[in-house]
Amino acid sequence: MAKTVVLGAGVVGVACAYYLARAGREVLVLERQAQAGLETSFANAGLLTPGHAVPWAGPDVPLKMLKWLSREDAPLRFRLFADPAQWRWLLRFLGNCTRARFETHAARLIELALYNQSLLRELRSAAALDDDVHAPGLLHIFDDARVFDAARTHAAFMTRHGVAQHPLDTAACLRIEPALARCAYPIAGAIHTPDDACGDALKFTQGLARHAAERGVEFRYGCTIRGLALAGDAVRGVHTDAGELPAEAVVLSLGSYSPALARQAGLRLPVHPLKGYSVTVPLSDPGRVPSVSLYEERHKIGVSRLGDRLRAGGTAEFARFDTSLNAVRGRALLDALQALVPAGLDLARTTHWAGLRPMSPDGMPILGPSGAGGLYLATGHGTLGWTLACASGKVLADLLCGRTPQVEAGAFDLQRFHP
Ligand SMILES: Cc1cc2nc3c(=O)[nH]c(=O)nc-3n(C[C@H](O)[C@H](O)[C@H](O)COP(=O)(O)OP(=O)(O)OC[C@H]3O[C@@H](n4cnc5c(N)ncnc54)[C@H](O)[C@@H]3O)c2cc1C
Fold it and tell me: Which of 10, 89, 256, 271 is deepest in the core (most CB within 10 A)?
């Protein structure tokens, strides 16, 4: 019997499969890796953060991009390729760097992230998921007083949209997280988001995949998707390295690899890979390591405590589909973490990782019907896939099953790029 086929078992695909099964669908998930979550969902910074659920395309970004152009260790590194897709994406990204667009998109993202928070709570009380998820709150740390002043205005915007944020002076910041007293540079102030959480996205993805399998979802690992089987302009199945599989509906959640497949159905998805790095360090002295999550403005890195490990993630680089580790950028990330947390880390056992954020130019995911019959989209989660996955999965399942989602889903439709 034809099933609803979900393409990709990253955190987004697995969440889609789970909510589709809960809605009564027969679901098959196809994934090329041997398990769920082994690509971009593998070792992200771990932040579940409505407090940072805003697009990267913001009014101050074009100027910062110019300043970073020549630095190999810059938070955002440009390498321009003779690739029309990259140029088109960049132009669209710059077009979204206005105050009005930033605020409109941020409002939608915050709503989705808060919805995710409530779904995650409900899910975790229903299923025993060993995922290190906890809610210690997040401190956004500033070393520059002028930048901190501007951040106060932004905190007021976030609070108006339902994410409580409190500007703190240095003393108040250290009361919340005493381990920051060892930071190598003076802290000018911080914005505290008390309700932000963190957790291990890989453990969550694999735990949710097991839970979904118990509900009848079939996972086929080691299965490479080659293409879409089309009848006219409708999708009727999927071509894989093990042959063709029929589908009553197909959900495209291949992260950065989604556009190539969508092209076969005549669709242009403006999703571009943006490489990022993480370092994960076991703790040697937990008492000297922050337990609150951190976002450090100077180098733009996120830090989360995952059980007996500390994870820092950040940096962005146009590198096409290259996930190799650049030693300079890995070292810059570790140096930034060490400046923030100089003690309590077993640095000799550091592990480095790089992954590809599936970035849309306006920072919002692409969710819902594609316009091609039978093909649905759940991709483009960029910097926020872990923060949004459950909400995206639920919205997608609602749309596919003809139900009205609890959040305004029209904003995430692909049509916004092709009005
Ligand atoms: C350094 C870094 C730090 C980050 N930090 C955070 C954070 O703190 N908080 C947050 O919310 N988000 C964060 N993110 C973003 C988040 O990790 C991503 O948005 C999310 O993992 C994307 O999930 P996905 O399921 O869309 O993609 P993926 O996890 O990449 O899943 C896609 C799946 O499709 C499979 N696939 C692809 N092509 C094929 C094919 N042809 N056949 C079969 N299978 C295929 C892949 O194997 C993969 O498993 C970070 C990302 C990076 C890189």
Answer: 10
Distance from the CA of 403 to the center of ligand 1, in angstroms?
27
Where does 50-84+132-197+272-359 sit in CATH, by number? 3.30.9.10
Q: Are 6 and 13 in contact (CB under 8 A)?
A: yes
* Rounded distance from Cα 255 to ligand 1 centre (Å): 5
Distance 368 CA to ligand 1 centre (A): 18
State the architecture of 3-41+203-269+363-417 in CATH terms: 3-Layer(bba) Sandwich (3.50)
**Ligand 1 center from residue 273 Cα (angstroms):** 10
Residue 131 CA to ligand 1 center (angstroms) comes to: 17
Cα(109)–Cα(411) distance, rounded to whole angstroms?
Answer: 10
Alpha-carbon distance of 212 to 204, in angstroms, equals 12
Residue 405, ligand 1, Cβ within 6 A: no
C-alpha pair distances (Å), 278 with each of 6, 40, 285, 328: 28, 11, 21, 13
Q: Is the CB of 381 under 6 A from ligand 1?
A: yes
Say if ligand 1 is within 6 A of residue 313 CB. yes
Phi-psi region of 210 (alpha: psi -120 to 50; beta: other; left: phi over 0): alpha
| Digit-coded pLDDT (tens) for 306-351 | 999 999 999 999 999 999 999 988 999 999 999 999 999 999 999 9
Q: Which of 386, 388, 392, 396 best tests ligand 1's pocket when mutated (most atoms within 8 Å of CB)? A: 386
Residue range 348-366: mean pLDDT, rounded: 98
Tell me the whole-structure pTM to 2 decimals: 0.97
Q: What is the pLDDT at residue 1?
A: 67
Domain residue spans in the chain? 3-41+203-269+363-417, 50-84+132-197+272-359
